[in-house]
Specification:
Bound molecules: NADP nicotinamide-adenine-dinucleotide phosphate
Largest sheet: 7 strands, parallel
CATH architecture: 3-Layer(aba) Sandwich
Distance between the termini: 37 Å
CATH class: Alpha Beta
CATH superfamily: NAD(P)-binding Rossmann-like Domain
CATH topology: Rossmann fold
Shape: globular
Order of helices and strands: EHEHHEHEHEEHHEEHEHEEHEHH
Number of strands: 12
Strand content: 15-25%
Number of domains: 1
């Protein structure tokens, strides 16, 4: 994707892991970008100001998802909006606040500002968490996570993403707002920001030795650069619509640690499963055909892992042995 696009777009939560790559690619494509951050002067957003094109075409605005007027100011006059901001935590407090109300604030502000298209960052967690789905069923865009199950299991993050996406679709349908949704799996890959984000800490614990075992669990993974490109494809392709599963591959945690141990035998990577009583969890099936048809080509997963680890080494989160 190259070119010089003469549009202004807003990215909420611009300093985040995914949003930083999105801002970088948007600037490279020629967009003017309004990035919302909670504290524009904070050191954790400094990397944004160093991106190519940032001096000329990036403006950072202070905004909080729960402060409606700050969101109105950020989206006023822009052509498109990428709503990525959301705390990534299992704390149930985020559900009604930044997740649901924050998303509705962004949609309302977009609708009132006649934004051409909103691309919402949801999650695969809003799609696949359903114990009633037979293991042979393929996880696709029409699937929804079971909110009762998420409540019962106190899975605050997936509950927040599921309820926020439901609320967003209800609002978009009522208001006529053009919304496209990206549903990424667990996102890994190189960091642009200096701070550690939640999904990267997922592999850091295996490299530092703080995790002595791995869980009997399967998850889908995707590279952060692919997630950012998926957002741009969803924005720029007029025919893009609905939801897009953005996942490269499903791995059992045992497979993930095996791969890490093969690539980095020098680190104390756990080789023991925490659950020795139950049979090994079987991977679920997933289709990423829809996003591939939009033009996304996934980066090789081994490259994604290597780039994640290099970035953790460069930032001093792990020593180079
Ligand atoms: N990483 C993954 O594995 C993954 C997978 C699927 C979906 N997603 C979704 O992708 C999006 C970005 O995730 P990420 O991994 O890039 O997370 P991240 O690095 O933690 O970024 C989250 C961003 O949200 C902002 N934010 C949080 N609460 C806010 C509020 N009340 N008002 C304004 N901004 C707020 C944060 O701003 P501050 O810097 O001010 O805290 C931060 O910039 C989220 O919607 C997440 O649910 C992530």
């Amino acid at each position: 994707m190259t070119g010089a696009i003469q549009e202004t777009v807003c990215v909420t939560g611009a300093g985040g892991f995914i949003a930083s790559w999105l801002v970088k690619f948007l600037l490279e494509r020629g967009y003017r970008v309004i990035g919302t951050v909670r504290d524009p002067d904070e050191e954790k957003n400094a990397h944004l100001k160093r991106l190519e094109g940032a001096n000329e075409r990036l403006t950072l605005l202070k905004a909080d998802l729960l402060d409606y007027e700050s969101i109105v100011r950020a989206v006023k006059g822009v052509d498109g909006v990428f709503h990525t901001a959301c705390p990534v935590t299992d704390n149930l407090d985020i559900v009604q606040g930044p997740a649901v109300q924050g998303t509705l604030n962004v949609l309302k502000a977009c609708s009132e500002s006649n934004v051409k298209r909103l691309v919402l960052t949801s999650s695969l967690g809003a799609i696949y968490m359903n114990p009633a789905r037979p293991l042979d069923d393929v996880v696709i865009e029409k699937c929804w996570s079971d909110t009762d199950y998420l409540q019962q299991t106190k899975n605050g993050y997936c509950l927040a993403k599921t309820l926020a996406e439901h609320a967003a679709w209800d609002y978009a349908k009522k208001s006529g707002l053009d919304m496209v949704v990206i549903n990424p799996a667990v996102v890994l890959g190189p960091l642009l920001q200096s701070t550690l984000n939640a999904s990267t800490s997922h592999i850091l614990k295996y490299l530092t030795g703080s995790a002595k075992t791995y869980a009997n669990f399967c998850q889908a993974y995707v590279d952060v650069r692919d997630v950012a490109q998926a957002h741009i494809l969803a924005y720029e392709t007029p025919s893009a619509s609905g939801r897009y599963v953005c996942a490269d591959r499903v791995l059992h945690r045992g497979e993930l640690v095996d791969l890490l141990a093969k690539l980095y035998p020098e680190y104390p990577i756990p080789r023991k499963c925490s659950d020795e009583r139950n049979p090994r969890a079987q991977p679920f099936k997933i289709s990423n055909e829809k996003i591939q048809n939009l033009g996304l080509k996934f980066l090789p997963f081994e490259q994604c892992l290597k780039d994640s680890v290099s970035s953790l080494q460069e930032r001093g989160f792990i020593n180079t042995l």
